Amino acid sequence: MTASNFTWEYAPAPEAKDHAKIKKQYDLFINGQFVKPQSKKYFETINPANEEVLAQVAEANEKDVNAAVTAAKTAYDKYWKKLSGAERAKYIFRIARVIQERSRELAVIESLNGGKAIRESRDFDIPTAANHFFYYAGWADKLEYAFPNRTPQSLGVAAQIIPWNFPLLMAAWKIAPALATGNTVVLKPAESTPLTALKLAEIIQDCDLPPGVVNIITGFGNTGAAMVNHPQVNKIAFTGSTDVGKIIQKAIAGTDKKLTLELGGKAANIVFEDAPINQAVEGIVNGIFFNQGHVCCAGSRLFVQEGVADEVISKLKARMDTLIVGDPLDKNTDIGAINSKEQLEKIKSYLKIGVNEGLEIFQSDACALPKKGFFCKPTLFIGAAQSNRVVQEEIFGPVLTIQTFRTIEEVIEKANNIPYGLSAGVWTDKGSKIFNLTSKMRAGVVWANTYNKFDPTSPFGGYKESGFGREGGLHGLMPYVKF
Ligand code: NAP
Ligand code: MG
């Protein structure tokens, strides 16, 4: 039996969900309480793996947004801006501890509501979210060291709008530095993944944060727009699509609102002939297929040096034969459910576009999809070119385009020739090649001989249409202070 057709058969190992307490209905978290929406409207949130309804969630209208912003402004003026950094740190530290304590429940809910494999939510999303709170708790009383010889001041109310691919982690990225620097918050999770943010609201309540310091409201794009346009908002932090980022930038033109945008990406993952090929193949799979490709920094464009192209592609196909697509709660699952029907349709339309562009498509025959829910087979487009739409446009799914190159100059030129610049990966044995390449890549993060690694201490953010401003690390404090 050859390596390529040898697949382990695993018995199902689903994570129990009885300890995940999901209420039938969630109200808006405003001023330290869950309150009924003035809109009187609720919407359903589902499990994308089986399309079952998980809960009804309140839809915030303009009046609700106004109530949340007013609560945040009052909390800012009354206590939060007057509190010492050391006192703020205690609250943030407490949130981190409770996330850790409830990590199993949070991981299960993240996988139920978002579709991501439990391995990802359990081992990456939730621990990294806790780590961000721990890390920024550490900065709260040391801001004078973060900005030596300057006096950093908080801004006021931060409106924070996040997408569905890392729901709790994105909330942590945004809330932790805002609180550490003395700002108060109104946060809106994406319409399809509100549940862990609402669990975070419960945690914040349990941690006895002064009412109004963090407000969490749910709704659709209109809710986000009302937050952006509210006159008492001082700072907007947005992560999502480039299209909505542009709308927000236009909306605040002429105001003194501060803005950071973390937008789309189309990262190049570059494999040189001298790379450790087996490791690179694992890194390619991790870079684009895990998390269903719902990663803004996913390595969605593979560049392989000609001499090793055949070897890399055949090893990649063999590895794809072993990937398990299915129940997000199963611990064996590599690739969970696509987040929504809408997103699955978008991915499928790109699969058609790639085929119509004449590219060779590969999907493993060994990979079976569940009958219910939104699932997509990991896919390769082989023989792609710079001009292909599947190369230029963000698909945000488990779809990898493959191009070959001969020289380092050629690959840098091609990798940079794209509207985005969020991240990139390079695989080579030579340190000098890594330094040469990283200094010329127009990408916020370049991983060398690894991919998709995150740490609260290192900044993350993009060039060009991938946005501006940095989150994480000391740099992540900057967008929340003035001097
Ligand atoms: P999206 O449609 O831009 O939504 C992002 C958030 O903005 C959601 O909470 C959304 O609410 C809200 N929103 C929609 N229209 C708005 C408006 N006019 N004003 C204010 N807020 C508005 O993006 P998505 O479809 O959720 O996420 C996928 C995209 O996010 C991808 O393009 C991906 O590259 C990008 N992303 C980037 C990063 C990064 O760090 N750079 C991270 C993750 C994702 P609704 O959910 O209710 O529509
Ligand atoms: Mg959207």
Written overview of the protein:
- With about 475 residues, this protein is an alpha/beta fold.
- It has 15 helices and 22 strands.
- It has helices at about 60-80, 85-100, 105-115, 120-140, 145, 165-180, 195-205, 220-230, 240-250, 275-290, 305-320, 340-355, 390, 410-415, 430-440, and strands at about 25, 30, 35, 40-45, 55-60, 155, 155-160, 185-190, 215, 235-240, 260, 270, 300-305, 360, 380, 400-405, 420, 425, 445-450, 465, 465-470, 480.
- Strands 14-15-16-13-12-18-19 form a 7-stranded mixed β-sheet, with helices on both faces. A 6-stranded mixed β-sheet has the order 9-8-7-10-11-21, sandwiched between helices.
- Helix 6 (about 165-180) links the parallel strand 7 (about 155-160) and strand 8.
- The chain is globular, with a radius of gyration of 22 Å.
- The chain starts with about 25 loop residues before the first strand and ends with a strand.
- NADP nicotinamide-adenine-dinucleotide phosphate binds near residues 190, 228, 240, 265 and 296.
Topology readout:
Elements (H helix, E strand, L loop, with lengths): L24 E2 L1 E3 L2 E3 L6 E5 L6 E6 L3 H17 L6 H17 L1 H12 L3 H22 L3 H4 L6 E2 L2 E5 L5 H14 L3 E5 L6 H12 L7 E3 L4 H9 L5 E5 L2 H10 L6 E5 L5 E4 L5 H12 L12 E5 H16 L19 H16 L3 E3 L16 E4 L6 H4 L6 E7 L2 H9 L3 E2 L1 E5 L3 H10 L4 E4 L14 E2 L2 E2 L12 E2 L1
Parallel strand pairs: 1-5, 7-8, 7-10, 8-9, 10-11, 12-13, 12-18, 13-16, 15-16, 18-19
Antiparallel strand pairs: 2-3, 4-5, 6-22, 11-21, 14-15, 17-20
Helix pairs in contact: 1-8, 2-4, 3-4, 4-6, 10-11
The chain binds NADP nicotinamide-adenine-dinucleotide phosphate and magnesium ion (MG).
NADP nicotinamide-adenine-dinucleotide phosphate binds next to helix 8 and helix 9.
